[in-house]
Each structure stands twice: as structure tokens, then as C-alpha cells.
Design brief:
Layout: E1 6-12, E2 19-25, E3 28-32, E4 34-36, H1 49-54, E5 60-63, H2 64-69, H3 73-79, H4 82-86, E6 92-95, H5 98-103, E7 108-111, E8 114-118, E9 125-128, H6 130-140, E10 144-146, H7 158-182, E11 188-193, H8 199-212, E12 217-219, H9 228-238, E13 248-250, H10 256-264, E14 269-271, H11 274-280, E15 283-286, E16 289-292, H12 312-316, H13 319-327, H14 331-357, H15 361-372
Parallel strand pairs: 4-14, 5-6, 6-10, 10-11, 11-12, 12-13, 13-14
Antiparallel strand pairs: 1-2, 2-3, 7-8, 8-9, 15-16
Length: 374
């Protein structure tokens, strides 16, 4: 069965694995490398869909676990899918819920059949299997859906990581079979490579997942406490094993410096709650590094948040005003901070795409980090 989602590499940097690409979906194209704002419960926190479009969000992420519990697949089906329900006409990617069940481990039990879990909302009990994960995402109607996987934490024993990785591969085969049975050709199903911080397990996971065959592949099991050096090793082991002609998605990674390192190693897609979560806690990205707007030194700083930024917040409001809003717990603080951080990430990835097309990604990365980490 042919899939309606396709990918083409358009440009490559001559000195590293960085590349640009074009991901075609039923709801429009996505230029890569791309950062996907996280809209876990059909909402990117503090942002309207009109604002997301205005700042250049090409694709957003929703979560099958949360959407299954609330509002429920019956409501999403009656609404005509998540796109219509939330009035978002651009592409959507959904996470299967594996990471949420990892983070709510005290409420869940994993077996080869699937995951039995207790709702964090009302305590009701549910069973999530590879098959039901696909069914839920078919009801959601996302352009890209993910296989159900098990995400191990850090540190983890090699034997535990191996068992988990092989179960994830078995689940991927069951997800693929369910996708075929549902004839969900309008939605792409991506496989996920696991294996923790063990090179031979990452290799085995890649081999097993590629043998099943998917239109795109994700690198999972990072940003779970392993540290940057271990994350980069996992990337260096895994990315070269994935097909050149397929999109590569690094799940849950968002710091600007980590994006640059991953893009340098050939990754195309990213998502992370960090930019929006940091914003709500007063931590803002600037070209000169992260800025804590809570600091008293900004009380009488009437200059822009980031003079190098062209977003509406930096064009309009001062650091002093943004600090005042935060200290006063005004709702506007959450909105303006989030708007800025998302603009920063989306403008950064746009600039990266331009640099790769011009064959100067290496220079761009060095220049950006020199300022950002000063």
C-alpha cells in the first residue's frame, strides 16, 4: 500500500551530514530541518492557531495518549479529525503515547501484549496495544503517526534495554500490520529506533526496524537523563544506519545547541516542550544565550528582549515590561514569552536551512554558538 506522505532531500552541506529536505503530506509541505511545537492536548500552550501560522509553524505535534483520554476518539471522529477539531489546516504528527507511559510509570504496567495503565485524570484503567495505538491515531487523523514503543530511562541495565528494544521492534511489526489492515495510506507510520546507550543494541534495533519498512524513522530513548555526550554517541551510532532517502526524527530534543549538533549528524525533525515550558517559567532564548526575565537587573531595562530578534515581542516590548508581567503573574506574560521562544526556534531552523542550502552550515553553527554560549 502506497503512502501519501513522501520525502525528498534537496540540499546537502559539503562538510557534514546536514541536509535540507521537503516532506510532502496531505495537509501541505514541510521544509526540513524543522522544529515542531508541541500541542499535546490539541493546543500549543498559550498560543492560538492563528499565531502559530503567523510565526511560521509548519507542523505541530499532538499526543495520542492525552487525546485518547480527553476529549476521546469518539469526539475527534465526530469532529472530522484533529485538524478540524482544533482548526489547524497544516500537518500534524502524533506521538503514540509511549513516552507519556514511561513518564507515568507508577501508573502503568508493560507486558509483551501492551501497556495497562491508570488514567492520570480519573483513575480509570485502560490497555494500550500496538494495534490500539494505531487505531487511536487513525481516529485523530494525523499526517504522521508513531509506532508504540517502550522508552527506557537512564541508567538502565543492558539486559533490560535489550529486552525493551526487542519488544519495541515486535510492537513495530504489529503496528505496521494494523496500519495495513486499516488502509491508512493518508497517514505515514514512522518506526522508532531504541537501544539506550548501547551501540550494538542501537544497531540491532535499526536493523529490525528497517526490515519492517517505514516511510520515516525516529531516534527514541534520548533526553531521559543520559547527558549530552551519551545522546550524541547514540546519534552518531544511529543516524548513519537510517536510509538517506527517508526523514530522520529525533524525539524530544529541543535546546538550540542540541538541534545544531543533531542537524550536523543528519537529523531532519525535532520536537520538544522545552521552549514553551521554559517560557512559562520566565526562561527566554536570545541570540546571546538564555535569559531569566525574573532577574531584578531587568527591572529598569527598557531595551528589547533580544535586539537581534525580529519577532513581535522584541519589536514591541521591553525587558522591564516583560519582567513586570511575569512578576505580576499576568496571563499576558505566558503568551508573550511563549510567542518569543517559539519565534526563536522557528527562525533558527529557517536560518539553518538557508545556511545548508548555501553550503555554510559549519560557519553558521560556529558563529551562532560563539554568541549563544558567550
Amino acid at each position: 500500500m502506497d503512502c501519501a506522505v513522501s520525502f525528498e532531500v534537496e540540499a546537502r552541506d559539503p562538510r557534514c551530514a546536514a541536509r535540507t529536505g521537503r516532506l510532502l503530506t496531505p495537509h501541505g509541505p514541510v521544509e526540513t530541518p524543522v522544529f515542531m511545537p508541541v500541542g499535546t492536548q490539541a493546543s500549543v500552550k498559550a498560543m492560538t492557531q492563528e499565531e502559530l501560522r503567523a510565526v511560521g509553524a509548519q507542523i505541530i505535534l499532538g499526543n495520542a495518549y492525552h487525546l485518547y483520554l480527553r476529549p476521546g476518539t469518539d469526539i475527534l471522529e465526530d469532529a472530522g479529525g484533529l485538524h478540524r477539531f482544533m482548526s489547524w489546516e497544516r500537518p500534524i504528527l502524533t506521538d503514540s503515547g509511549g513516552f507519556q507511559l514511561f513518564s507515568l510509570a507508577e501508573l502503568s504496567k508493560v507486558t509483551p501484549e501492551g501497556v495497562t495503565f491508570q488514567s492520570h485524570i480519573d483513575g480509570s484503567r485502560h490497555m494500550l496495544t500496538p494495534e490500539s495505538a494505531v487505531d487511536i491515531q487513525v481516529s485523530i487523523g494525523s499526517d504522521i503517526m508513531m509506532c508504540l514503543d517502550e522508552c527506557t530511562g537512564f541508567p538502565v541495565e543492558e539486559s533490560v534495554a535489550a529486552e525493551s528494544m526487542r519488544m519495541t521492534a515486535d510492537w513495530a511489526a504489529r503496528c505496521k500490520q494494523r496500519w495495513l489492515e486499516r488502509e491508512a495510506a493518508q497517514q505515514a507510520l514512522f518506526g522508532i529506533v531504541q537501544g539506550g546507550t548501547f551501540e550494538h543494541l542501537r544497531r540491532e534495533s535499526a536493523e529490525r526496524t528497517l526490515a519492517i519498512g517505514f516511510p520515516g524513522y525516529a531516534i527514541g530513548g534520548v533526553s531521559v537523563g543520559e547527558g549530552k555526550e551519551a545522546m550524541l554517541k547514540a546519534l552518531e551510532w544511529t543516524a548513519p544506519l537510517l536510509p538517506e532517502e527517508k526523514p530522520r526524527y529525533l524525539m524530544g530534543v529541543g535546546p538550540p545547541e542540541d538541534l545544531l549538533d543533531a542537524i550536523e549528524r543528519g537529523v531532519d525533525m525535532f520536537d520538544c516542550v522545552m521552549p514553551t515550558r521554559n517560557a512559562r517559567n520566565g526562561c527566554l532564548f536570545t541570540s546571546q544565550g538564555k535569559l531569566n526575565i525574573k532577574n531584578q537587573k531587568y527591572q529598569r531595562d527598557f531595551g528589547p528582549l533580544d535586539p537581534a530578534c525580529r519577532c513581535p515581542v522584541c519589536k514591541t516590548y521591553s525587558r522591564a515590561y516583560l519582567r513586570h508581567l511575569y512578576q505580576s503573574r499576568e496571563i499576558l506574560s505566558l503568551r508573550l514569552n511563549t510567542l518569543h521562544n517559539l519565534c526563536f526556534m522557528l527562525h533558527l531552523t529557517a536560518a539553518i536551512r538557508e545556511a545548508i542550502r548555501a553550503g555554510r552550515f559549519t560557519e553558521f553553527k560556529a558563529s551562532f554558538l560563539q554568541q549563544y554560549q558567550a
